[in-house]
Amino acid sequence: MNTPHTGLPESPSSAALSSSSLRGKSGRGGGRSLAKLLFEEFEGKIRQGLLREGDKLPTESELVQGYDVSRTVVREALSKLQAAGLAETRHGIGTFVLQPRTGGMFLLDPSELAASVDVLAVLELRISLETESAGLAAQRRTEVQLQAMRAALDDFAHCTEQGQDTVAHDFRFHLQIAQATGNRYFADIMNHLGTTLIPRTRVGTARSTAPNDGYLQRVNREHEEIYTAIARKDAESARAAMRVHLTNSRERLRLAQEAAAAASAHPV
Q: How remote is the C-alpha of 98 from its chain's centroid?
């Protein structure tokens, strides 16, 4: 019987090496986050064939210990792998490697995707898709899946307070809802869309990222409304809360784009 490959260092000494290597790259790479570096490490192993389709990745605890990083870093890196279509999480079992795919509109390089897709139009698609996803999740979710949603929101809130990036945790929350539908195609579409289609990744302003200006707090309150409805298995309220959240997201992005266009047309 073949033993699945893992990306975990094989010994304590090599674990320490991986940890120092990640932190060293972070210092030399112009402030690249540990989560991004951990994602890139696993992405490289998958694309090089060192990790193959069906291989099980180490648990969160093993990655935390093996790479000497926080659980938040690990979760963000795993979220990025899922968003890139390189891994999938099966609740109660673990995270497994997917076959890297090529071609197709939704499988462009993230920078190309961000430049080529009309996010306002995609938000209209998401309103339809995720409204029903939230309703199905409320009807079908397990306690384990609900706990995973709660963990994503807690990480989102923590990063907001610390002034850190919240995009991966935002995406993770929406992906957990898609997975809780029990219909894998919801999650497949979310993975194809990925984090580049979260509206604030397209608006490079301090207003959309500053933790004290109310923007992220409003987003978090909307997430909490969705979570509460799913937790109490209220499908109609879950649909309504998701529709309000994504409609608000579309409006926030529209206003930000208009402000950016006006600033460009009339530079100070």
A: 17
